[in-house]
Design a protein that fits this description.
This protein is of the alpha/beta class. The chain folds into three domains: 290 residues, TIM Barrel (Alpha-Beta Barrel); 67 residues, Oligo-1,6-glucosidase, domain 2 (Alpha-Beta Complex), CATH 3.90.400; 70 residues, Golgi alpha-mannosidase II (Immunoglobulin-like), CATH 2.60.40. Helix content is 35%, strand content 17%. The chain has 20 helices and 24 strands. The strands form six sheets. Strands 1-2-5-9-10-11-12-16 form an eight-stranded parallel beta barrel. Strands 17-18-19-24-21 form a five-stranded antiparallel sheet. It is globular.
Length: 558
């Protein structure tokens, strides 16, 4: 407890040098009492996230509510999922898919099902029985304008909440901030009916919280504490680079933002060392790694820079873009206890922000994958299309993309529906325009699962859905049963630029992963594969040659 107090005091002093520590001292006593009421594992697995396979979903779109999600836990268990990432579930007006939170301690009523508040707790209990961890999104940078804090902050009468948000008389401050939602909003300031302007980095109905007020920091910690007590295993810290604002800067990745994250980490580690914080930082690699600190900030971060390079490599039929972005020249080393989370598009779109792609890459990827003009997101900054659509329903390419993600270093994330090749949902997209008033093309990649139709397709071994699902399930379960794939050292074989060809090994065993990104048959060195057993995919063997077919993927084990 003494170390916690000392550490938090140092962080507090950096953030609030002119504030009394009395508020902090009271909070530390609150933490100690809170921890005494928690039920913790006797043998905590503090690095469980390194071997996980994550499945991200919107509860209502996946299967209506938490009762429906509980019913489908066996489906996820069979697929090989060991962690569910719940996209926004907290109370919200739903103008931004739930990222606009109106109550940080309440699950949306439409998600609760027939058991009411017990539906979520029952889901957690059943997921844990199947050894499936659960993390969820919590937007720590902003809230909904319908949150009680904001309503009170906007009052003409000065009160406790007045400076919970950032207000201005003219809306001219922070002029160096870029527009994150270019094409959907015109400014980072919005004029309120009270005559003043409030600051927002995203939609105008999502005002930014003011972390210069220490009460905001402590209340956000209490929100995390509330859900830790319920049994949640971790949090995806949404929009983490923007927490602290300073005039004359772009208000991204500022030093005090990292101090805030360290504060959160100290609190969660003290309460339960198995809780993870996952950084959502759409930034260049050298900035993303900073959100892991020296193992004292987030446990993991999304590898945003890798994702577009997977698509570039596959289109170029050349492995070099992937190998280059993963090199230490581009992506610095991370602490031993930290981890990258990898994915094929974030849950919204194939993101092409200039913070992690250059203009040339953006143009190339956009031209080769934005097959329909309606898929364009934020004026070229992304492509709103599901995985199957991006690869034009080519099963080999879809499987290859999954294989790259599953076999490279990092924790893979599967976006709901991609496991069976779900297409874009135009009907859902159009319905959301009517609700939100924004032409948000990200809604193309959302949409509901029709379980009756899906189950019929998955029972037909000739169907597109079955072929994608079956291949992915096989790869996941091989990965789950072989820690060498998740923890072994990676070494490239550079015999052909059109092959992403590498091995993973430790002292006892070795795996080889071969991805032929080209549209041609490629011959392989016979000596490299003769002593290995094919465990996924097929190699061609004829007339003394060993080769791999176009766009095919093969896994081997010695």
């Amino acid at each position: 407890m003494r170390d916690l107090k000392s550490d938090l005091q140092k962080l507090w002093q950096k953030l609030y040098p002119n504030k009394s520590s009395e508020l902090l001292d009271s909070f530390i006593l609150e933490l100690e009492g809170f921890k005494n009421g928690l039920k913790l594992n006797d043998n905590p697995d503090t690095e469980w996230y390194k071997n996980a396979v994550v499945y991200s979903l919107y509860v209502d779109l996946f299967n209506k509510d938490f009762d429906g999600l509980t019913d489908k836990l066996s489906y996820l268990e069979k697929l090989g999922v060991s962690c569910i990432w719940l996209l926004p579930i907290l109370d919200s007006p739903m103008r931004d898919a739930g990222f606009d939170i109106s109550d940080y301690r309440k699950v949306r009523s439409d998600l609760l099902g027939q058991k009411g508040d017990k539906s979520f707790l029952e889901f957690l209990k059943e997921a844990h029985k199947k050894n499936i961890r659960v993390i969820f999104d919590i937007a720590i940078n902003h809230s909904s304008d319908q949150h009680e804090w904001f309503k009170k902050s906007a009052s003409s009468q000065k009160n406790k909440y007045t400076d919970y948000y950032i207000w201005s008389d003219d809306g001219k401050q922070y002029s160096d901030c870029r527009l994150l939602f270019k094409g959907m909003v015109d400014s980072n300031w919005e004029k309120h009916e009270n005559g003043k302007y409030y600051f927002h980095r995203f939609f105008e109905f999502q005002p930014d919280l003011n972390y210069r007020n220490p009460e905001v920091l402590l209340y956000m910690c209490r929100n995390l504490m509330f859900w830790i007590e319920k049994g949640v295993d971790g949090f995806r810290a949404d929009a983490i680079p923007y927490l602290w604002k300073e005039e004359g800067t772009d208000c991204e990745n500022l030093d005090n933002t990292h101090v805030i994250v360290k504060f959160f980490r100290k609190v969660t580690d003290f309460l339960n060392p198995e809780i993870i914080l996952l950084a959502e930082a759409c930034q260049p690699p050298k900035e993303v790694v900073k959100y892991m600190g020296d193992g004292d900030e987030c446990h993991a971060g999304y590898n945003f820079p890798l994702m577009p390079q997977i698509f570039k490599s596959m289109s170029m039929q050349n492995a070099e873009p992937i190998k280059n972005v993963l090199s230490t020249a581009v992506t610095p080393e991370i602490p031993a206890e930290s981890q990258w989370f990898t994915f094929l598009r974030c849950h919204d779109e194939l993101s092409l922000e200039l913070v992690y792609v250059n203009e040339e890459d953006r143009k190339y990827i956009h031209e080769n994958y934005c097959h329909k003009t309606e898929w364009d997101f934020r004026l070229g900054e992304g492509i709103s299309a599901r995985l199957s659509e991006l690869f034009e329903f080519n099963i080999d390419k879809i499987i290859q993309a999954f294989s790259i993600m599953l076999s490279l270093t990092g924790t893979p994330i599967i976006y709901y529906g991609d496991e069976f090749g779900k297409p874009n949902d135009k009907e859902f997209y159009q319905s959301q325009i009517k609700i939100t008033g924004h032409n948000d093309t990200r809604n193309l990649v959302r949409g509901r699962i029709n379980w009756d139709k899906l189950e019929a397709r998955l029972s037909d071994s000739k169907s597109f859905e079955y072929k994608v699902y079956s291949a992915l399930r096989t790869m996941i379960n091989i990965r789950n049963n072989n820690k060498t794939i998740t923890q072994g050292s990676l070494h490239y074989n550079n015999q052909n630029p059109s092959l992403l060809y590498f091995n993973k090994k430790n002292d006892k065993e070795e795996f080889i992963f071969i991805h032929n990104m080209s549209d041609k048959i490629v011959n392989l060195d016979e000596n490299l594969v003769l002593s290995y057993t094919t465990i996924f995919g097929d190699l061609l063997k004829n007339e003394g040659n060993i080769s791999i077919e176009p766009f095919k993927t093969v896994w081997l084990k010695n």
